[in-house]
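DM from R.C. (forwarded with permission)

"hey, sorry to bug you on a friday — could you get me a structure for this? deadline for the figure draft is monday and I only need the backbone to look sensible"
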Amino acid sequence: MAEILLSSETFIKSVTNISDNVAGKHILPSLREAQDVGLRGILGDALLAALKGMVGDHSISDAGHEAYKDLLDRAQYYLAWTAVVEVCNRVTYKIGNFGVARSSDENLQPVGPEELGQQQFYYQSKADSCAVDLQNWLLNNRAQFPELTDCQCNAIRANLRSAASCGLFLGGPRGRILPGGGGCCKR
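My reply, with the result:
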């Protein structure tokens, strides 16, 4: 099965400050992760698969698919900024037979871990902003996407109330269903 990417290396380089000489071997895996992890978390499996199918068979611009084309266009900046977050580590650190290395040059000095973290935070903030805009747009245009289930919409709403890009649990009820929360995703 052919891999279908919803954005491109060219677009990412055109809207971000990634140097033109950054190799595609760093950008494409980062884009793949942004799409298949990050965007999948926003759209859900069914809607992402439908979008990839339309891009794959070049029917995204056909009559009747206007909402999907709009969704694809709106997802571009989210994909670009999320890919850049991933690219930062890929180009800063390399793994070789002797372990993890950092490139150095007499004219260029690589950033340290703290500065790298600051850059990633900057790009992640941009990606988070795009994600919130995309999620609000999806909720407002939900009727146009039959693949967007009630359960997925509830997950989007929950994320909008407590959106944060970190690996820490920031509090709130866990492991129980809140009144009015639905419980649509029963296993």
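R.C.: lifesaver. The first helix runs from residue 9 to 15.
me: no worries. The longest strand covers residues 93-96.
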